[in-house]
Amino acid sequence: MSLTERVQSRLGVPAECAVWCRIGKIPEPPAEVHRAAGSAPLRPAFIRPLGMLGVALGAPVLCVITLLSLLSDGEEALKRMLSTTGEQERHRAAKLGEKRRDEAIVELGLDKTFDGDWNGAAGQFLLGWYSRSSHHNRLLVLAQDHIILAAPPKRVSIRQEARIQVATVIPAAEAVVEDPFAGQYTSDRLRIRFNDGSWLAVVTEESDSEVHRHVAGRPRMGSHRRTSAD
Fold first, then answer.
1. How high is the pLDDT of residue 69?
2. Angle separating helix axes 85-107 and 49-82, nearest 10 degrees
C-alpha cells in the first residue's frame, strides 16, 4: 500500500498524493509580531526521555549504517576510477547538475524557510506552525480542493504515521504547492505559495516525490507581488 493510500485510510480524505516533509529553522520574528500571534512556539518539542532512550539504543545501528555507507562510497569511487571515459563524463555531468541545482536553491531563496515578510500570509502561517503540532515533521497531502498538513499532535520518535491527525487545511483557493524548479532539477524542495505571493519552503524526505510529479503538470501561480526570490 502506497503512502497516499495509507493516508486516505488513516485520515479519511481523498488524497491525490502525499509526502513527509519538514521546514527549516524559523527565524526570530519581531517581538511585537510574535506577541500578536500569541507567542506560539518557534521550535519543535524536545524528544521525550523514552524517545531519547530509543535514539541512544539505535546509535550503534546508525554507526553500522554510516560505516556501510562509507564503504559503499569508497566502492563507488573505485568504480569511477576504473570506469570508461564515457561513464566518467556522465558522472561529471551529474555532479555539475547537482552543483547547479544547489546554486539555484540559493538563488531562489529556498535555503531560507520563507520569503521573510512576517506580515504576509506565509509569515503569519509560519508563526503558528508548532502550535498546531509540536512534531518536527509534517505529512503534506494534496487533495482536489485543499492542501492538508498532518502530523502527530505531539512530537514522537516512533510510529509518526500511525499517530497523524490533520493539523491544518488550506483551501486550494488560498495557496498552491509548486515545484520551484518546474522539473528542471530533481530536488527535495517544494514551495507553498499563498495568493499574496508570500511563500513557505519545505524539504521533502524524498527527492522527486509523488507530490513533485503531481505538481509538475499543474499551471504555476500567476502574477504576484514578490519577485526577488523568483
1. 60
2. 140
Which grid coordinates are listed for 103? 546554486
List Cβ neighbours of 90 (8 Å cut-off, separation of 6 or more). Answer: none
- Count CB atoms within 10 A of the CB of residue 162: 10
Q: Is residue 192 within 8 Å of 177, Cβ to Cβ? A: yes
Number of C-beta neighbours around residue 215 at 10 A:
21
pLDDT (0 to 100) of residue 128: 96
DSSP letter (8 states) at residue 21:
E
Report how far residue 118's alpha carbon sits from residue 124's, in angstroms, rounded to the nearest whole number.
Answer: 6
CA 122/CA 27 separation, integer angstroms: 13
Residue of 203, 199, 202 whose CA lies nearest to 221: 199
**Cα(24)–Cα(137) distance, integer angstroms:** 11
pLDDT on residue 91: 73
**What is this structure's pTM?**
0.76
Q: Phi first, then psi: give them for residue 16, nearest 5 degrees.
A: -90, -35
Alpha-carbon distances, residue 142 vs 41, 147, 162, 176 (angstroms) = 26, 5, 19, 9
Which helix (H) or strand (E) is 79 found in, with range?
helix 49-82
Give the model confidence (pLDDT) of 108-132 as tens digits. 899 999 999 999 999 999 999 999 9
- Identify whether the C-beta of residue 23 lies closer than 8 Å to the C-beta of residue 203: yes
How far is CA 12 from each of CA 15, 177, 214, rounded to the nearest angstrom?
9, 21, 20
